[in-house]
Fold this sequence. Notes:
By secondary structure, this protein is α+β, with helices and mostly antiparallel strands. The chain is built from two helices and four strands. The radius of gyration is 15 Å and the shape is globular. The two termini are about 30 Å apart.
Amino acid sequence: MSEKKVPNPNGKKGGEKHQNLQAKVGEEVEQKGLERIFEHFIKLFNGKRRFIDVAGLDKVTKKEIEFHQIGIQTKKGLPVKRERDVIEEVEKYKNIQVEFHAYNKEEDKDNDGSSD
Length: 116
């Protein structure tokens, strides 16, 4: 019996490239004096639930200060649709701009985002 290929055995944690960039962004958040939270849960006003890859919170008040989403970008340099949808929803309901970080920026300039 052949082994079934698992698309992402790490689940929402993402692959190795995603995790490496997430750690780097997390360090940058901490250097700003913020509390770094990975996979920060957000319940939106419309009832949807989302996870932000890295959130920076005020260490005292725990107020959300900044959000970072990590993923794949298209040939045009935009986040793929799935990531754009999350970013748009979070910005609309939380009124915090989400900074996008692409982990395929240099190595995969041919990606059109259709497979994600």
